[in-house]
Amino acid sequence: MTILFHNTTFDKINVWKKTIKQYFKNEEIISIKDYKKFHDVNFAIIWNLPDQILPKLKNLKIIFSMGAGVDHILKLKNYNKNIPIIRIKDAIMGERIANYSLAQLLNYQLNFKIFQNSQNINYWSGERMPVDNKNLTVGILGLGFLGHYIARLLNKLDYNVIGYKKSQKSFKNIKVYTGKNIISFIKNSDVIISILPSTPHTYNMIDKNFLMMMKKNSCLINIGRGDTIEEKDLLNHLKKNKNFFAYLDVFKNEPLKSSSQFWKLPNVTITPHVAGVTAIESSVKYMYSIHKKFKKNKKVKSDVNLSNGY
Ligand code: GLV
Predict the structure, then answer these.
(1) Which of 63, 80, 208, 252 has the fewest beta carbons closer than 10 A?
(2) What is the whole-number distance in angstroms between the Cα of residue 71 and the centre of ligand 1?
(3) Domains of the chain listed by start with CATH number
(4) What tens digit of pLDDT does each residue of 104-159 get?
(5) Residues with CB under 6 A from ligand 1
(6) What secondary structure does DSSP assign to 79-119, as a single string?
(7) Helix, strand, or coil (residue 180)
C-alpha cells in the first residue's frame, strides 16, 4: 500500500515525514511529484492538497486530515464523497486549544492588552480592577470535541461556562444553547470563544448583528475559522468600541496581508493560526491505528457528516 503525504503549511515537515515512516514501516510514502505512483495510493495524509490531485488517486481508500478541520478537503472540487475522511481527534491538541483560549481570556480579563499598549508609549496606566473567574461567563461557540476541552479547563478554574452547539447534547456544569437560542447565548456571554468550523451554515455568522448583541466591553476570541466572521463588520465594531477586544488566530485569507487594518488596531491581538497546532507523534499514531483497523475490517467510518458540512 502507498501513502501520499502533502503539506506545505505546517512547521516541522521533516519530523512529520520521519514519524510517518516510523509508524507506517511497510508502506511506501510518496509526494505529489511521484505522479507515476498515484495509481497505488490508498491513503492520503494531507493538508491543503492542490485541487487537481484527488481525481488521479483512483485507488484512494482514506483521507487523513492533518488537523482537526476538514474544510480544506471538502472544498476540493474533486472530493469524492464516498471516501471517508479521518480528522485529528487528539487530547494534546485539546490541551493546546484550551491553553491558548485561557491565555487570551486572561489577557483580556487582566487588562494585559491595555498595559501592553501603554508600554508601547512609555505610559504607566495605573491600577485596573480585574473581574474574578466566578463572575465571568464564558460562552463557547461550537461545543464539539475541542470546544469541550476548553469548557472543561475553564470549569475547573471556576469560570461560569456556557456553550452553543448545533445539536442538543448535555454536558456536566455547562448550560448548552442550540438553534434559535443563539441570541440568549450571545447575550448571556461576557466573553465569546468561537471554535466554529467553516461550513455554508457558519459563513459570516459573526456579523454586525451578532456583534451588536454581544456585551459592549466584551471580547471575542476566534480560534475556529476566519470565514465565520464578516471581517468588515468586526473592523467597524472594533473601531467604534474601543473597549471591545478581539483575539484572532484565524482569518478569511491566510497569511493575513500586511495591509490588513486588523494589525494596527489597539484592541486586536493577532496570532498566526497556532491555537491548535497538531501534535505530531500522537496524531501519526492515531492515523496508524485507523489504518490498521481499515486493513482488518476493509472499511472505516468517516468523521465527517456531509450534511452538517464538518
Ligand atoms: C487547525 O486549524 C486545524 O484544523 O487543526
Answers:
(1) 80
(2) 9
(3) 2-90+278-297 (3.40.50.720), 91-270 (3.40.50.720)
(4) 999 999 999 999 999 999 999 999 999 999 999 999 999 999 999 999 999 999 99
(5) 67-69, 276, 278
(6) --TTS-EE----HHHHHHHHHHHHHHHHHHHTTHHHHHHHH
(7) helix
